[in-house]
Amino acid sequence: MDPLRHDTSSQSVKDTSFEVEDVYEDDELTLQQSNGFAEADVFSLQEQQPTSRDDTKVAVDQKAPHRSSSPTHRLRLSLNERQLRAVTFPLQSQLQILAGPGTGKTKTLISRVIFLLSQGVHPSNIIVTTFTVKAANEMRERIAAMVGPSVASRLVLGTFHSIARRYLIKYGYLIGLPTGFQIADETDALHFIQSVMKEVDPESDKNDCRHARNAISNMKSRAIQPSSLSALEYTTQEMMQVYSLYQGKLAEANFLDFDDLLLKCMELLRTNPLVVSNIQAVLVDEFQDTNVVQYQLMKLFAARRSNITIVGDPDQSIYAFRAAESTNLMRMRQDFQDTSVVSLEENYRSSGHILNAALAVIQQDTERIQKTVLPNHDEGHMPVFFPARNPYIEARHIVKEIQRLIDLSCGMLKPHDFAILVRSARLTRPIESELTKAGIDYRIVGGFRFWEREEIKLLVNYLVVVKSRRSPALLDIINSPRRGIGSVMQAALLNHANAYQVPIWDAIQRAIDGQVRVNAKVRSSLKQFVDIITEAERLVQDSSRETPLADALDYLITALDYKEALRKDRGDTWAARWENVTDLKEHIRYFCATAPDPELPDIDGVEGTKAADDVLSRFLATVNLAPSEAESSAFDPTMVLTISTIHGSKGLEWPVVFIPGVYEGSIPHALSLAKEVDLAEERRLLYVAMTRAKGENI
Length: 698
Ligand SMILES: Nc1ncnc2c1ncn2[C@@H]1O[C@H](COP(=O)(O)OP(=O)(O)OP(=O)(O)O)[C@@H](O)[C@H]1O
Prior knowledge:
Elements (H helix, E strand, L loop, with lengths): L19 H4 L3 H6 L6 H6 L8 H15 L3 H7 L3 H7 L6 E6 L5 H14 L7 E5 L2 H15 L1 H6 L1 E4 H12 L10 E3 L1 H15 L5 H15 L10 H4 L2 H16 L2 E3 H14 L9 E4 L7 H10 L6 E5 L15 H8 L4 E5 L1 E2 L4 H11 L11 E2 L15 H18 L9 E5 L5 H11 L2 E5 L8 H14 L6 H4 L9 H14 L3 H9 L7 H22 L6 H12 L2 H8 L4 H20 L21 H11 L14 E6 L10 E3 L17 H15 L8
Parallel strand pairs: 1-7, 1-8, 2-3, 2-6, 4-5, 6-7, 9-10, 11-13, 11-14, 12-13
The structure holds adenosine-5'-triphosphate (ATP).
The site of adenosine-5'-triphosphate has 18 residues, from helix 7.
């Protein structure tokens, strides 16, 4: 048998007696067997189900001298009894690991992946979904530390969106998806909506467009198609028309928006289940925040063997505004009647007082399912409530406290041990200015994406247009940096394109050829613009170059005289902006040097497309799917404090956490006060924020 192809036979813990060497060619795993024990043996010891944690340790310790180097052995020692039970649960089962914050859900999920590998499941037959790209990267690193990077890199691990994209790249043709599709980010999607809204309702403004965008995305995350009858329960006839035209625009330009990635993948797997016939296990992190479509995708991924492990905490469901459905937990139990539930109860993160304070918040929700969360640590210090009269006093207090704690700990606590978690981005300004005054370095994550900075977005938009001339980003870059193609000229090009039903790019070409009336200066600017895009495209496609994408970016920066343009137009901020551009250059060089995810494995009986995923498309996809900051790593990371939105802090932890702006109108948000269900989500939000804190002594 080719070890790197899939075993399509079913497996269970009990019948998997072969050793890992038998299954993989990968050196990492076989090396780890050099002590003479198959990993499967190590874990199958757990099948004895020891009666207490101490018993477990004794049983393991007796064997320890023989296998102290085994990663799974080390892993097993670090798990408590319930975690171990969840980790070693039989294959071919459906398991919900439900637990409060800091109880080791993520750790347990990672350990289960290691367990599955030790049972002979090939990494490319395991799908693991995470909620963010950052979480996926961290998880892959932690798994790689135990089984080696080559095995870890073969896991199909990522967000639902990135996994869906990988399937569509390889098999999208089976549902008629043209190759080379691009992902429409929020700005692109809004552009498409705007052009549609102009047709449907010429009076519409930006707010209407945003409303339409949200309404459509909401319908898509419930798998409601423009044609479906039930749609009218959610929206109006006019909105359905906008939805339908919007889909047409996306298709015409060969774009998929974020929701489409999931919907198209669902269509692919429904009509061609063979493409996931190799999948032996599906694991889902942060299950409480999955929406209907993601739930369906999970089922489709697992269609062949129904081996599903999910971890979640209904109390941490904070994405209802994105149509996340905490009812998916019940749905799963209905769909899979044999679903087992393991609950973890010990909180290893927070000190007793922090945990109790957080529980006092969440327990106000009388509708929630009660569950036990017990502190594993001492009580520690009481959390502090500091009533501040205004945000400036609050910011000064926070920064003083940080300095005091660093001094008090004689430097044991460093800036990276602190996080400031905010309800919304606008709360950070006074805090940032106090931190700057105090000389404390900080990074901002979640909701303030590097990629959304103006100077970065512009260069990325150039690359988008290099990839796809039909991108709506074309109008964002045509006069930026300024080249005399102002709004009147742009409107003329747009009118021509609409009148002759041609893309704007063609209208530009026609203007250069003299078919559209423009003055000589504009013509020359248009020509210069077209030449820049064409040359950048040539460079990207030049396979004789080592780093064609990085070379194309360097060319763009030079051809646009970008440094000078920033200096001229961006006042005092130009130097900081130029630094970001330098970071982008470095990031792209690094990206070019990093190997892409290995291709999804070939499946017998179904042809996959090859080489559709060029370097520029891959880069643009990582930009679009990136959750947070790309930070310059020029400084000492321990000296950098974190500012994050609460939403962006999911799954993370710090010794000391500050939560500014906890007052009615902020948390809970003013818009949530009227409805109990919204209020409950606000409580969960505060609960998530509070439970990120470990306590200063931990
Ligand atoms: N059995 C254990 N023994 C010691 N420490 C543990 C154990 N299980 C988990 N931990 C530690 O507890 C902390 C929280 O673990 P983890 O992040 O996996 O929890 P979680 O349940 O996913 O948290 P959350 O849902 O709040 O993000 C981590 O520092 C982890 O290393």
